[in-house]
Amino acid sequence: MADLLLYDTTLRDGTQGEGVSLTVEDKLMVLKRLDKLGIQYAEGGWPGSNPKDIEFFQRAADLKLNQLRLAAFGSTRRAKVAVEDDPNLDAILKSGVKTATIFGKTWDLHVREALRTTLEENLRMIAESVAYLKSHGLEVLYDAEHFFDGYNANSQYALQTVREAAAAGADCICLCDTCGGTMPWLVEELVAKLHAELKTPLGIHTHNDSGLAVANSLMAVRAGATQIQGTINGYGERNGNADLCVIIPNLTLKLGREVISAEQLATLTQVSRYVQELANQSPDPRQPYVGASAFAHKGGIHVSAILKHPQTYEHIAPELVGNRRRVLVSELAGISNIIYKAREFNLQLERSSPVTGRIVSQIKELEHKGYQFEGADGSFELLVRKELSQIPPLFVLEGFRLVTEKKEDNGPAISEATIKLRVGDSRVHTASEGDGPVNALDNALRKALETFYPQLKSIKLSDYKVRVLDEKSGTAAKVRVLIQTKDEKRSWGTVGVSTDIIEASWRALVDSLEYGILFAADEPQQG
Description:
With 527 residues, the chain is an alpha/beta fold. The protein has 18 helices and 16 strands. Helix 1 (24-37) runs antiparallel to helix 12 and helix 5 packs parallel to helix 7 (155-167).
C-alpha cells in the first residue's frame, strides 16, 4: 500500500458545489474511473439521506473495484441520542460499506451555537460514535470539522476532541480546514504538533476559500499527514475543495511521492475532462496541469525557445499528465509560432520563405481587425493552405439574401435565406428557412452544396459565439463570431469578423464547411 492515501470526495463534497449535479449512473461511472486512476478511497455520499444516495450504495455494492474502498459519510450521533438509536449511524451500517467517514465538531462555537449542546456531550458524541462503528467491524475515518478555526478559538478543546476520536479507535483523523481560511504555515505547524503526539494516522481536508487548498494539503503532507482528501477539478462548497488534479501531480512529480503509477498519471487530463462532462461543467482552461491552457504558448520568444528545448518554458512535459503542448497564433506571434503551428497540420514552412513572412503579416493584420485564431485552428489551417496554393476553390458565391418576418408581437420570427452560387460549371439557386438568420443561411448553404459534397451530411455546427469588439460603437460595433463544428471524428473552430453580424457569421460558416469538406476523411485532430 502507498505511504500516502488519496481520498476522493467528488461524489459527496464535490456535488455540493454550485451547479454541480450527478445522477446515480454518473456517480457509478465516476467511481469506476477513480478506481482505474488509482485512488484509494472514494466517499459516496450520505446513505439514507436521500433516494439517490440510497440507490447509489445499493448499486455500488455490485461493482468489482480493484483497490478503491468506498466510504459512507455521516456525522456523529445526535445530542442526547443513544448511538444504537441514531438513524444516521444506522444508515451507514445498512449501506454495506466497510469504511465509514464521520465528522464531529471541533470548534466550541459550533458545539454551542449549531448543535446547541454542551462541550462535554460533544466529546461523548465523538467517542461513542467512533467506538460504535468500530464495534461493528468498520474502518472508521474521523473528520475533525473546523479543526484549524476551532484550535484558534479554543486550542485545548479542539485537541481534546481529536484525542477522544483517537482513543475510541479511529483509524485515521482528518483535520479539516472547513472555512478554507488557514495559512499554509499554520497548517504545517498544527499537523506536525499532532503527528508528534498521536499514533493515529492523520489526514487533511481543505477548502479553497483563500486559494490555498492545494498548498495547505501539501504542507500537511510535509508535516506528516498520510491521507489527502480532495475532489476532481476542485469541485465543492463555495470556492471548492482541494483539487486532486493538481495535488496528484505535485505529490508525484514535485515531492517524489508516487501516489499513482506513471501510466495512471498519464490519464489525469482525460479523467478531469470526463468528470467535467458528466457534471456538465465548463472546463477551466487555466487549471494547472490538466487545463487546455496549461501548456499553451503565445509569445514568439517563448515559442522560439520551446522549439529548441521545451523545458525552457514548461515545468514538466505535458504528456506526463496526459495533456498536450499548444502553440497559439495571435498578434504576438512570430515566425516560430507559425512554423510550429503549421507542423501540427503536417505543413512544412521554412523560416526564410517569403510565404512564411506573408502568413505572419496576414495573421497580424487580421488580428488587428479583430480576428482571433486561438480558438479557430480551422480558419488558421485554411489560411496557410491557401497561401501554399493547396486548396482548390470549392464554390463561388454569387449572392445571398436574408428575410426575417415577424407577424405577431408574441409570435416567433421566421427567417428565410436565398442563395446563389457556382460549383464548377454548375449554378445553384436555392432557399431554406431556419431558426434565425444564421441558421437559415447555414441550411441554405448546405442544401446548395450537399449534392456536390455529400460529406456535409455528417458535419454539425456544435457551438456559436458572438463577441462585440468595441462596445462604445453601439450597434455599429465590430463583432467576432466563433463557430465550433464537428463530425464523427473531431471538431474544429473557425472565425469571422465584421461590423455586420451576418457577414461575420458567413465568413466563419464558410470556413467551417470548407474545412469539413476538405478534411472530413483525414485522421482526427483537435481544432
